[in-house]
Amino acid sequence: MTPVTSEPSLRGITRTFLAVSVIIISVAVLVGGLGVLTDNAFLLKVHPYIFFVGFGNLAILLFNRYLTSAIYPELRINPARQRVFIGLVLLALVMVSVAVAFELPLLKAAAGLMLMGVVVVPLYEILTTLSVSKIWNEVSVRYYIFDVVFLLNANLGLFTLGLKEAFPDNGIIPFFVTQSSYFLGSSFPLSISVMGFLYTYAWRKSSKKELAKQLFSLWFYLFVGGVLYFLIVILLGDYLGMMLISHILTFGVMALLYTFGVFLRNYFRNNFAHPALAFLLGGLAFLFATSAFGILNIYYAKGILFGSYPPIRGDKMWIYHSHTHSALLGWITLSFTGMIYIVLPAIQKLGSLDLLHSGDPLDQLLDEHTMNRAFVQLALMLVSGTVIIVSFFTGSDLALGFGGVVYAFAALYLLRNLFHDPVFETGDNQ
Prior knowledge:
Keywords: Membrane, Transmembrane, Transmembrane helix. It is built from 15 helices and no strands. The chain is mainly α and about 425 residues long.
């Protein structure tokens, strides 16, 4: 395989991505926790923007590209361009934060427009480099390409949201363009990325890989098509349609959770306890919780027009918050942490994507002490994440706030754990 870039450059940009993305996640959660403890309206309002504008874009623009290029090396990685992407995403993050703080919606719209322009660059490169047959031939690449498409749509949502807030009486921008719809749309590309990753590095390597390919191909249509259909029935206010598709997706998640649990049991029995796989299992467990809370959310939101606030009966808002935070802190953050524990050590090991392409990135690349600390990190994130979800039900702001603070520092520990691992310090020269 021809290296997609030089060793020092690829190692350097992945380390930068790791540092910036983990800090953004930690800051977003910490700001949310402190917002609860201090009852600060700005902190509470801005913390989901930090997560989606910052991590949501970086994960697809950079990390998703490593996964796609590992399958098709002709999609070369340009470290200089990726550094520009990081800079522009951070600029957008500052713009949105200032817009929220000083109520400058046009600045929010400008950030969304800029991010749309950023996302168009890799999307154009992908569509002009890979043929449709190549994209559709690899199941995981279908997931990865649609991630970028959905991210473009999410940034369009940020742009139109800013315009709607600036000109609320224009009558042109649809009623469904709200903060909730922007956050919902931004979560989809992150979710789809994890699905593609699970197929590539778990089921695809199983003894029944042909069956796995057929099932994940079917799941692609159910998951991506189901999400699109779900958006339509939400806008139509079709209660039965929302319930039908949400139950279908939940049964699919249950099947994923069960089969991945079986995969892990066999893997741990024949290999070693890889902490990344445990993170992914925890993520799937929270996805199941997300789906269950989502069904309850639909039940209690019956008769409430999408885009209204609150989006659900006031006495049931804990369900809505549990649904969103199970997705963000549980499914997305835990899953991406697990993916990072697999992908980035593989890149640091050789300074290329070779190990992801033709080797086995699930090999024991990390030091034993690093893996043990990763399990401790996972335990802290699971406990604090569960405390956060339970706190929405009990109404304990103290537990909710401190749960967020603990979760933030547990997530930040990923930097200390990986940067001090021998494979990050010396690569293949360890």
